[in-house]
Write a structure and sequence with these properties.
It contains nine helices and nine strands. The longest helix has 16 residues. It is about 35% helix and about 15% strand. Helix 1 runs antiparallel to helix 5 and helix 2 crosses helix 3. The strands form two sheets. A seven-stranded mixed sheet has the order 1-3-2-4-5-8-9, sandwiched between helices. Strands 6-7 form a two-stranded parallel sheet. By secondary structure, the protein is α/β, with parallel strands linked by helices.
Length: about 260
């Protein structure tokens, strides 16, 4: 229990810890499903918390904004890991991960930002499908298809099942009032300095939610970052390009782990 908030999380494996933070409006199952595809299963302790107001983590009455969530996550990492961890975030989770690295750099071995959302958003491309397989909608109900189309630009039977099984269930658990309160105080104090440990910044060129320009702008804040803009991906990049993400994340982990 941290500040009257019991943080629910899933955990797999053993070894150096990696904490992965999901986006807004879902729960840990989305980033868990994606990351379990691209992270090594041996020699890495993989931790997936539900963010406050999402999944099975209630927001409590002391969390008034994103800065409070960053503080909560810092204490969560300190208590659960007991030392520095690799930190990975997708979308809104990447913004929180940046806050954690800025506020508690000693707790972060390395930082991976996938489709990061931040203080502002640059130009957004039109949401268009780059691939639609004939069986892409076979496992989706009619009421599920528009949400799938809004998120994925690579539309296959596999990405549709990922949306149905790991994205939609978390949407149903969101505490709209609590999340609205927290996101209403959006800005995180990131300081003015740089984060000089190994980092990875990935963006989808077809990302109509976060765009890719703001991700590119982060390069000077993270002087040890590998930066890649993937043409054949949107905001669901971790699901759409797992093989490319796997290679880039493996390089980041190698650079960030001591020894």
């Amino acid at each position: 229990m941290i500040d009257n908030v019991a943080v629910h999380y899933a955990e797999h494996g053993s070894g150096p810890a990696l904490v992965a933070l999901h986006g807004a409006g879902v729960d840990h199952r989305e980033i868990e499903a994606a990351a379990e595809d691209f992270l090594p299963h041996q020699g890495l302790r993989r931790i997936y918390p539900d963010l406050p107001g999402m999944g099975r983590t209630r927001a409590g009455d002391r969390l008034a904004g994103n800065d409070d969530v960053v503080r909560l996550l810092g204490e969560f990492v300190d208590r659960l890991v007991g030392g520095p961890a690799l930190v990975l975030g997708h979308s809104y989770g990447a913004y929180l991960a940046r806050g954690l690295a800025a506020r508690r750099p000693e707790s972060v071995l390395g930082l991976a930002l996938l489709c990061p959302i931040g203080e502002h958003t640059g130009a957004l491309p039109e949401q268009i499908a780059l691939r639609i397989d004939p069986d892409a909608y076979d496992d989706l109900g009619p009421e599920q298809r528009s949400g799938f189309d809004d998120y994925f630009v690579i539309r296959t039977a596999g990405t549709a099942r990922r949306y149905r099984d790991q994205v939609l269930p978390g949407i149903a658990l969101v505490d709209e009032a609590a999340v609205g309160r927290i996101l209403g105080n959006w800005r995180i104090d990131l300081g003015t300095g740089t984060f000089d440990k190994p980092a990875l910044i990935l963006a989808g060129r077809r990302d109509s939610t976060a765009g890719y320009e703001t991700a590119v702008e982060l390069r000077d804040k993270y002087p040890r970052a590998t930066l890649a803009v993937l043409d054949n991906a949107g905001h669901a990049l971790p699901h759409e390009q797992p093989e490319l993400v796997r290679a880039l994340v493996a390089d980041w982990i190698d650079r960030a782990q001591p020894g």
